[in-house]
Amino acid sequence: METMTVVFFYVSSHASGRKKRKWCYDVRRENTIEENIVFSRIQVFLPLFEKGKKRWTGKALSTYLDGLDIPQESRNVYYVPDEEAACMLERGTEPLSLEWILFLLAYYHLDFDGLLILQDREMDAEEMIRHFAPVTKYLGVITKQPEKWQDVAEELSEEYGFLLDVVTEFGGHHYRGEKLLVVAGRENYQVSPDLIPEGSMWLSTDIGSENRKICAGAHKVAYFDIKRFLRERNWYKWIKKSDTLLDTDLKIQYNNTR
């Protein structure tokens, strides 16, 4: 049975990580099973202080974190630190793996006849291209290094009989179908609402992407990301009151009603 795990990190501003010589952990778990998938939510509350009101040193914090009883970040385990935890851990979220992308496509029942990938940091675009090549009529990549795709394009042409569309900006793609799936991170390659084909679906691999705002201004473009999935499951509750993303998401849902 497949397990999809999300680990949230928060900072507990009044807690200490050690009493006498014993480390103190606050890790909470919740598992549900739906359609042969185990959804696992883990909440980690990181103490602001090492002991009493003593601030953490780097070595002590590293030792503390090594003792956390949580799964390692992997292709099926996604780490989500809040703003304060991201500062403490000196890291943010990573782009979604292919496993999470496939999961979200199945979860939202997204059907498409063309795939356009906007290559971005830490994204394995080639892995996605090779995965979808046997079942997709159109494959395109927008990249800043088109020369690196020459060998892949030749292999796909020999094996599947079609050309990989490799361009350097969003307006240069040659998709002419009706159900385009765009997979992108933060880099948008000069996209604007009028350039996104009507009826497209946009899947963001990066939780910090601003492209949802662009999709909100496009015509009948549905936007999906891990943040939407987490909110729908009432898992994503640490958004600050000042964050306007909630208003933006409502606008996107209204815009994408079909």
Walk me through what this model shows.
The chain is built from eight helices and 13 strands. It is an alpha/beta fold and 258 residues long. A six-stranded parallel β-sheet has the order 10-9-8-11-12-13. Strands 1, 4, 5, 6 and 7 form a five-stranded mixed β-sheet that branches. Strand 8, helix 4 and strand 9 form a beta-alpha-beta unit. The C terminus is likely disordered.
What are the salient characteristics of this protein?
258 residues, alpha/beta, 6-stranded parallel beta sheet, 5-stranded mixed beta sheet, 8 helices, 13 strands, elongated
Q: Care to give the gist of this entry?
A:
The chain is an alpha/beta fold.
Structural category: alpha/beta
What's the SSE pattern?
EEEEEEHEHHEHEHEEEHEHH
If strands are numbered along the chain, what order do they take across the biggest sheet? 10-9-8-11-12-13
Characterize the largest beta sheet: strand count, sense, and whether it forms a barrel: 6 strands, parallel
Radius of gyration (Å): 21 Å
Mass-distribution shape: elongated
- Helical content band: 25-40%
Distance between the termini: 34 Å
Beta-strand percentage? 25-35%
* Count, helices: 8
Low-confidence stretches: 238-258
List the helices and strands and how they pair.
Layout lengths: L1 E15 L1 E2 L2 E2 L3 E8 L2 E15 L2 E2 L2 H9 L10 E5 L1 H7 L8 H10 L6 E5 L6 H8 L5 E5 L7 H11 L4 E3 L12 E5 L16 E4 L6 H6 L5 E3 L1 H7 L12 H11 L3
Parallel strand pairs: 1-5, 1-7, 8-9, 8-11, 9-10, 11-12, 12-13
Antiparallel strand pairs: 2-3, 4-5, 5-6
